[in-house]
Specification:
Oligomer: single chain
Largest sheet: 7 strands, mixed
Number of helices: 8
Number of strands: 7
CATH architecture of the largest domain: 3-Layer(aba) Sandwich
Helix content: 25-40%
Strand content: 15-25%
CATH topology of the largest domain: Rossmann fold
CATH class of the largest domain: Alpha Beta
Number of domains: 3
Shape: globular
Order of helices and strands: HHHEEEEHEHHHHEE
Strand order of the largest sheet: 3-2-1-4-5-7-6
Structural class: alpha/beta
């Protein structure tokens, strides 16, 4: 009975009405200082994600006969022509709107390549990474490749241990007053920069070096894992890295 009521409500009331209603409630709690802003923002994101998931339950039907797909996970504003560009938010070029942290809407063995750049660090290592990698393995065809690009925490920690700002500025471009070139955040200490990389407010969930990525990819079934470099890939189509992120990034590929 409960499920029937939910289905009726989804048909009668537009999805955006649900989103606006919940956002108004959370926004009121935040403005009245009953919950901190970071909790508000995270709750807002998760509510939106849950509603998107409910809306996209039948998305898999769209791809039921698909094969040899190229999938760009967490594409954001960097969607690629002739790719399946996946993101949780609608944006130009995004042609697959879904919450991909726990499931992907593609059939088994239907994908030849998965590209994900600065998305993997945004999912929880304990709860979401096992589901996400298991789904990636499921949808990839034998011999298919996943290319994962994340901030290289080993680079950052090495630079931090050198003392001063010179090494850190090479990895993460800073203006003359130590303002982050990308995020426009002014750092007062080197540890502020390190914490921003680790956390990026509430958005980053885990920090990776090659050893950890290699371990987790083998754990979830991939047969071969290797470190790569900017613009270098086992599959030419996967060489779509952003030049602007090259100095700070770790490039890893795994084969099913």
């Amino acid at each position: 009975m409960k499920q029937l009521v939910k289905r009726l409500l989804y048909k009668l009331i537009p999805l955006q009405t649900y989103v606006n209603y919940h956002h108004r409630i959370i926004n009121r709690f935040w403005q009245e200082q009953l919950i901190p802003q970071y909790a508000y923002l995270n709750s807002q994101y998760e509510i939106s994600a849950a509603l998107i998931k409910a809306k996209s339950k039948k998305l898999s039907q769209k791809y039921e006969n698909a094969k040899d797909l190229l999938v760009n996970v967490g594409a954001g504003p960097h969607a690629k022509a002739d790719w399946i560009n996946v993101d949780i938010s609608e944006a130009p070029g995004i042609n697959c709107v879904c919450d991909c942290r726990k499931s992907l809407p593609f059939p088994d063995n239907s994908v030849k390549g998965i590209f994900t750049e600065h998305f993997f660090e945004h999912i929880d290592y304990v709860e979401e990474v096992p589901l996400f990698l298991s789904e990636c393995y499921r949808v990839l065809k034998p011999g298919g490749i996943i290319r994962i690009i994340v901030p290289d925490i080993e680079k950052y920690l090495y630079a931090y241990c050198q003392g001063g700002w010179e090494e850190l500025s090479i990895i993460r471009p800073l203006d003359s007053d130590l303002t982050d070139f990308h995020f426009k955040f002014k750092y007062n200490t080197r540890m502020e920069l390190i914490n921003f990389v680790f956390r990026q407010h509430y958005e980053h969930k885990y920090a990776y070096d090659y050893e950890t990525l290699e371990f987790i990819l083998y754990k979830y079934g991939f047969s071969k894992v290797q470190r790569q470099a900017f613009g270098k890939s086992l599959m030419d189509e996967l060489s779509i890295d952003q030049q602007i992120r090259a100095s700070e990034s770790l490039y890893v590929e795994a084969i099913k």
